[in-house]
Amino acid sequence: MNLAQPLSRSVRLNGFATCLRLEEVYWKILERIAAANGCTVNCVLSYVDREVHLRHGGVKNFSGLVRVICVVYLLGQAVDT
Question: If we measure between CA atoms, which residue out of 53, 56, 36, 45 comes closest to residue 17?
Fold first, then answer.
């Protein structure tokens, strides 16, 4: 049940400090994504933030987008194995 607990973390998205609230399970997936790319969670989140602004002018629900990215990452891992 601990993985379902919401957790707020301070993050820097392209130089701007903000707070992101996600369930613990998503933070763990973000750590995996960061490790797979040889960077930090902040780096992954900054990349996502930058890309969504460049491609779509932004997003209303950034935490929702991050959840989707985590699920897509796991689905890709399942296909690769």
Answer: 45
